[in-house]
Specification:
This protein is mainly α and 101 residues long. The protein has five helices and no strands.
Length: 101
């Protein structure tokens, strides 16, 4: 039986996403994520098995957030569909550019 995680998983994934986003996959190490998140290397490897496993979890969460964003925009649409699409694209660009220095 596996132990319950002893860390804040959403916070860890936030740190990992920021690291992967700003440094790229190759230049990001588990040690980098451990240092910024405060979660030990061993805990990260125990939970995700590898840097790739952690990256895939981050990517899965990111994709799910995009689906939620699109669903919210489409279901809240009261005007022309084109306005909803323009708003969606605005939100995506705003999020992507928020990571630029």
């Amino acid at each position: 039986m596996s132990r319950a995680r002893q860390f804040d998983e959403p916070a860890l994934l936030d740190h990992a996403q920021e690291a992967f986003w700003s440094q790229g996959y190759e230049r990001t190490s588990v040690a980098d994520i451990s240092r910024t998140s405060g979660v030990g290397n061993g805990s990260i490897y125990a939970a995700y098995e590898s840097k790739l496993g952690l990256f895939l979890q981050v990517f899965n969460r990111y994709c799910n957030e995009r689906v939620t964003l699109v669903r919210g925009i489409v279901t809240a649409q009261t005007g022309p569909f084109e306005d909803a699409i323009a708003y969606y694209l605005y939100e995506i660009v705003a999020e992507c550019t928020s990571h630029l220095d």
